[in-house]
Amino acid sequence: MKPSCRYCPHEVLRVKVATGRLAGLSASMRSLTLAAISALVLLIGGWGPDTLQAQIFERALVLEGVHLPAPDGTVMKNANIILRGGRITEMGPDADAPLMSRKLKVEGLFATAGMTDLYSTLTLDAVNSASAVHSAWDGFDRYDSERIMQVLSIGVTRIHLVPVGAGGIVGRVCSVSLGAREGGGHGILDAEDVALCIDLDTGTPLQKIRTFEKVREAFRAAERRRDAADDYSSDLEKYIEELAEAAKKKADSEGKEEKGDDKKADDQDDNDDNDDKDDEDDKDDKDDKEK
User: Fold this and answer.
1) Pick from 100, 150, 168, 269: CA 20 to 30 A from residue 37's CA?
2) CA 98, 99, 101, 105: dihedral to nearest 10 degrees?
3) Who contacts 108 (Cβ-Cβ below 8 Å, separation ≥6)?
4) Tens digits of per-residue pLDDT, 65-119?
5) pTM of the model
6) How many CB atoms lie within 10 A of CB 178?
7) What is d(CA 161, CA 176) in angstroms, rounded to the nearest whole number?
8) Which among 31, 39, 32 has a CA at the least distance from the CA of 15?
9) How confident is the model over 258-287, as pLDDT tens digits?
10) Cα angle vertex 31, ends 28, 33, to 5°?
11) Angle, helices 27-45/11-20, rounded to nearest 10 degrees
């Protein structure tokens, strides 16, 4: 089959010329050289330009002239940040740009860690009913890319997602990282039970007081359920221990009865043996008298 090369049409000719020069080499050297040439043909002729660039010539991105805030409060000026494959591989004033990297001058701009929004309702819709078992993660729209990208563009990379609902105990807050998901969309769940959201709602002071009383009653009910569960657990453990003790006593009692029956049987056997012996003695005496 005639070899083909999509990336460079002249490589086939070069390979033919190179193979023609192998005649003067030893057999082992010819094998090694042919293997190298075959690998080169597969590398250049079998892959497209995009694949070759991604696998071998993956270009790094260098942000030049960045200001980096240091932990001690100082600012590290004119630093470089090197990114490869979407990840930071090196940063600092001494970070050298890799060969064939793509450079972007950003003099005067600050690079900081991603911010966290501690009260976010991103992509959430209000619900009419809510409870302590409701989680904000259940209502998060991972495919609302437009709103998520707006938040990412201002430097927020993580949010505490707060459920939206009627007054009282609304639901559970979760922590979400806004990174891209492998299956598409954005949003990776970091922690589901971060906090319990309680909202006194808007309205008159009397309405807020009534909402607060509902919240207190819900907590009292939860305490009663917790206490009942603790009492049930302790009672169940005690009941299991009593069953085990009763079973042990029954086994000991049955063992004693079996031993008593065995002793009675042994005594009866002894009595029978004695009776047989007495009968034999009487018979012997009678025989002696007759003689």
Assistant:
1) 100
2) 70
3) 65, 67
4) 999 888 888 888 889 999 987 788 898 888 888 888 888 998 888 888 889 999 9
5) 0.50
6) 20
7) 7
8) 39
9) 666 666 666 666 666 666 666 666 666 666
10) 110
11) 180
